[in-house]
Specification:
Layout: E1 7-10, H1 16-29, E2 35-39, E3 52-55, H2 64-74, E4 79-82, H3 87-93, H4 95-99, E5 104-105, H5 110-117, H6 119-128, E6 136-138, E7 151-155, E8 165-167, H7 170-179, E9 183-187, E10 193-200, E11 206-218, E12 221-228, H8 231-244, E13 248-257, E14 260-267, H9 274-279, H10 284-293, E15 310-312, H11 322-329
Parallel strand pairs: 1-2, 1-4, 2-3, 4-5
Antiparallel strand pairs: 6-9, 7-8, 7-9, 10-11, 10-13, 11-12, 12-15, 13-14
Helix pairs in contact: 1-10, 3-5, 5-6
Length: about 325
């Protein structure tokens, strides 16, 4: 049993609620340890609530992984979590380099990361699982006669709902085919969107699935939502997680069409609306910390959580002087 668990969040960004949820989990478990957060931006809000914060090179830098490795070593990190989609395939591909430090990289295997990052591969993966998914095709060489409107268009390698649009006619389709990079065209599903927070342990066993309907979204992240329960959705999420050989958190998206779920995307990380699932009884941070520390923790039966619990969010602020920003800039990580 480990008496201390130190965790690292990459690209911490705006995920203040998530870091606070982990801090609360430490208290519930009476467990010691540090929360370390890194980002490229000294104004990233989550850096203000971590125990230690570092400014790191961009993900595209050749020094990015070596910097994360050195932080893992110097901070005695036990668990590494990615908080944005682009980080996941990079961390997965360099798992061995990071885990020689003693850290566990809590992201899906590299093959699964490739599927989740590429929306076309996600579509093919879901079709192969015989899971309902909206009819889709790549945007190359399409003819307006091929479609019934409305449609939905999104980037093949997109994230956070950027450059995703409803398409109502051929004129709009022509425009968005030029505007959206590497576009995928799908049938438009008008029903409510359901986000499913799926949690696996470090061996790939599915511990929990909590479903929440998105009521209002801003910048790709839910601002209002409510927990729901649908056994068919949970069963499909379990199948998806097992086929991916997922470890840790993944988020599975589906949209209802006449009450039937059609699965659309997989994000291999904590969802932005995770605090709603935690409040409903799926305390992912506490369960993961307990597993890492070798502590006994009671985990409810799959599908057990409070249904009909609503969440509504608001903005909060940190105020930094020029000296504060200079201080944060001084946290740029330097080996040794």
């Amino acid at each position: 049993m480990k008496k201390e668990i130190n965790i690292l969040f990459t690209s911490a960004g705006r995920r203040v609620e998530l870091l606070r949820a982990f801090r609360n989990a430490y208290k519930k478990l009476n467990l010691s340890g540090s929360i370390v957060a890194v980002d490229i931006d000294p104004l990233a809000p989550a850096l203000q609530v971590a125990d230690r914060s570092y400014i790191v090179p961009p993900l595209t830098s050749r020094n990015y992984i070596s910097t994360i490795r050195d932080i893992c070593r110097s901070s005695c990190i036990h668990l590494v979590f990615a908080l944005i989609d682009p980080d996941i395939p990079i961390l997965a591909a360099n798992r061995n380099m990071l885990e020689v430090t003693g850290a566990r990289v809590v992201v899906v295997p590299h093959a699964a990361a490739t599927i989740a990052t590429d929306k076309w591969l996600t579509y093919q993966f879901l079709c192969g699982l015989d899971v309902r998914t909206p009819r889709s095709r790549l945007g190359e060489g399409v003819s307006h006669a091929d479609f019934e409107y409305p449609l939905f268009i999104k980037p093949r390698f997109g994230s956070a709902s950027k450059k995703t649009f409803k398409v109502c006619n051929g004129r709009e389709l022509s425009f968005f085919l030029e505007y959206v990079p590497n576009p995928i065209i799908q049938e438009y599903l008008p029903g409510p969107e359901i986000t499913n927070d799926v949690l696996c342990d470090f061996e790939g066993n599915v511990l929990a699935v909590v479903s929440r309907q998105r009521i209002e979204v801003r910048w790709g992240e839910v601002t209002k939502g409510i927990t729901i329960y649908d056994s068919s959705i949970i069963d499909s999420c379990v199948r998806i997680a097992k086929k991916l050989q997922a470890i840790g958190p993944i988020t599975v998206q589906c949209i209802l069409k006449e009450g039937i779920p059609y699965f659309t995307e997989i994000n291999a990380r904590f969802g932005g609306g995770l605090p709603l699932g935690i409040a409903a009884g799926v305390d992912s941070p506490r369960w993961l910390l307990a597993k890492a520390a070798g502590l006994e923790v009671e985990i409810p039966t799959l599908g057990t959580y409070q249904v009909g619990l609503s969440m509504t969010r608001f903005d909060d602020s940190f105020f930094l002087s020029g000296e504060d920003i200079d201080e944060m800039e001084s946290h740029r990580f330097r080996p040794g």
